[in-house]
Amino acid sequence: MALVELRNVSKIYHLGGEEIRALDDVSLDIQPGEFISIIGPSGSGKSTLMHILGCLDSPTRGTIKLDGTMIHDASARELARIRNQKIGFVFQFFNLLPKLNVLQNVELPMIYSGLAGRERRERAVQALRMVEMDNRAKHRPMQLSGGQQQRTAIARALVNNPKIVFADEPTGNLDSHTGEVILELFRKLSQEGRTIALVTHDPEIAAVTPRRIEIRDGKISKQVDAKLAGLDRVNAERGTRSAEHNTGAKLPAAN
Amino acid sequence: MNLWNAILIGFKEIWAHKFRSLLTMLGIILGVSSLVAMSALVKGMEVGAQEALIAIGGLQKVRIESQDVPIQQWQLKDQAVGVTINDVYALGASAPLVTKISPEMRLFGATASKKGKSFRPWNCTGVWPVALEMYEHVIHYGRMFNEIDDEMARNVCVIGTGVRDELFGSPEDIGEEINPVGETISINGQPFTVIGMFEHYESEQERKERELAKLQPKQAATGPKRSRGWSGREGSGVFRMKNNTLLMPLNTVWMKFRAAGAGASKSSSTVANTLNVPDPRLSVLEVKIADVDHINIALQQIRNVLMATHKGIEDFSFRTQEERAESIGTFIHNARMSGGIIAGISLLVGGIGIMNIMLASISERVREIGIRKAVGAATEDVFVQILVESIVIAVLGGLVGLIASYGLVRLIVSFSPTDNAPIITITAMAIAFFFSACVGIVAGLFPAFKAARLDPIQALRYE
């Protein structure tokens, strides 16, 4: 069973009497443990897709099934709970709270899941260790470099052990070297078995993922697997799982 | 998110914007402190009024006054006898609920003089010795006149300190307490021996002030001495009136002043004084009843007796202290209401200040709210957080306001000293604090609602 099942999802905005289809009849499956990228130029609808996948927004038409639960007409409260428990977000602008220190920022999701202070602290420290930020726990976001801030944000996204992590242009605000480091971190997390979806406009970044979904004008224009793109060799060297063919059907590993 | 976390975040938020929060709180601080101070002032007045009520004899006192014959009995007008000493005897014999009866003949505008100094006491009255208890007088020097003095119509009198001060000089002016007992003064031209003096009556507040003044070294008086008018030691209100009392035996007044040719021109009598019969009518008849709770029964009893002695002509009326107590109550109520409304408005303004700052604060924190929502804050969590912040500001302001109210009360007292020291009550503080918390809730509702309704996607994009 797929972790995320998107069926005929449309998102329609009305802007001055004009109908804008941000998403037009999109169907998509994401398997547990997959590392995918959603790629498309700005205005293509990739952000809308991510928001709907991430339960920040609900579709105008169509259904989403996340981890076996139908998110059809969930209340705002249920959506908040799902975001809290099953989904992690990493943003382009890090979106850390400037008034809180690194540890408190990482603790934030657990405050809303109602964990006790002691357990929060332990888990936050653990998550920070995973991104090698545990030595900066008492620093404020403003005292950190962009890469460090993004690693903190990743720790925050992971701290509640979500089923899937969405990263919206995670390297967009970093220099290329730091971006590499962050992408490497995502790859490492993927190897640990986490499901990660990268949203980007940059094909180079998208190239690191075995599976790529291209969005154009609200529709999936094409799905690419690593093998066809000639990247399987690179991925194989780094020990990633082999690419998959198209939606749903999982093929045995090529090598 | 539990409430504790929300409160913690609220405090952090306030701490992060110390000056802004302080300004916001100032509205609540002023509102709460003015509410408490106002209530303290009114409470002080109330206590002062009650003190005064007790000083004039308490609630058990009923005054029987002459009044015009009612219109349906006008044909009996010339049969109306008025309130006389006969009523006193009749009440004493037939009204068991009446414990004390004090007949009074008042000399209006009587002049007391001594060695060229003359003075008009506020109250110059002929009474029975029982008046001592009736008006809660306390003898300081000498004695009260007794039944023999009354029976023999002796020219004796007992004076209050106000009269003493005017005729002999006050201790403040001449530096020593004068004992006027044994001195002779003249009242409307007739010589009277002072046989006693009452103690000085004053409110608690006046007593405290006087004692404080005693401790301080006296300033040497410079320049010519001026009259202080009605201020100074005299005190105020009922206490001043009580000190300005001159009492004589009832019979003395009746025979020496009411009889024709004996200072009759000064008497209140409207009956022609050509007859050599003194006017037997009393100006006032004060009675004290056994129990305030049975005042209506007692009044009925008195009425029955008087109806008999007055041949059924209702030429008398009652005035109870209850009316006075009631009018004090009304005054206190009005003062409290108007003060409360003003303080309430200032609290409301404080609330608007909070709402304003909360709205500014959430529009500053749109992104933060978006982030919180993205990581799993539900609508209610955001709502509670903003509401709690607002309440924390209001409650902190309320607490500071309670402390500030002490200062405010002192300030008010130093600006305008009153006879009645303001009294800060726990109830007033509790009510003011409760209201400040309510203001916090009301002021926080709208901003909290606005913040909670923010769309997370829009909020995250917000710059």
How do the strands and helices of this protein lay out in sequence?
The complex is a heterodimer of chains A (255) and B (463).
Chain A: E1 4-15, E2 18-30, E3 35-39, H1 46-53, E4 61-66, E5 69-70, H2 76-86, E6 87-90, H3 102-112, H4 117-130, H5 146-158, E7 164-168, H6 176-191, E8 195-200, H7 203-206, E9 211-216, E10 219-225, H8 232-237
Parallel strand pairs in A: 3-8, 3-9, 6-7, 7-8
Antiparallel strand pairs in A: 1-2, 1-4, 4-5, 9-10
Chain B: H1 3-16, H2 18-55, E1 61-66, H3 85-94, E2 98-106, E3 112-114, E4 117-119, E5 123-127, H4 131-134, E6 139-142, H5 147-151, E7 156-159, H6 161-168, H7 171-174, E8 184-187, E9 190-198, H8 204-215, H9 237-243, E10 245-249, H10 250-258, E11 284-289, H11 295-309, E12 316-320, H12 321-364, H13 366-374, H14 379-415, H15 426-452, H16 456-461
Parallel strand pairs in B: 5-10, 7-9
Antiparallel strand pairs in B: 1-11, 1-12, 2-5, 2-11, 3-4, 3-8, 6-9, 7-10, 8-9
Helix pairs in contact in B: 1-14, 2-12, 2-14, 2-15, 3-11, 12-14, 12-15, 14-15
Task: Report what the structure shows.
- The complex is a heterodimer of chains A (255) and B (463).
- By secondary structure, chain A is an alpha/beta fold.
- Chain A has a single domain (31-59, 79-247), classed as Rossmann fold.
- Chain A has 8 helices and 10 strands.
- A 6-stranded mixed beta sheet of chain A has the order 6-7-8-3-9-10, sandwiched between helices.
- In chain A, strand 1 (4-15) and strand 2 (18-30) form a beta hairpin.
- In chain A, helix 5 packs parallel to helix 6 (176-191).
- The model of chain A is unreliable at 239-255 (pLDDT under 50).
- Helices cover 54% and strands 14% of the residues of chain B.
- In chain B, strands 1, 2, 3, 4, 5, 6, 7, 8, 9, 10, 11 and 12 form a 12-stranded mixed beta sheet that branches.
- Classes of the chains: A alpha/beta (255), B alpha+beta (463).
- Chain A binds chain B through residues 51, 54, 56-57, 76-77, 80-81, 83-85, 89, 91, 95-97, 99, 108-109, 111-114, 156, 160, and chain B through 1-2, 5, 12, 16, 367-368, 370-381, 456-457, 460.
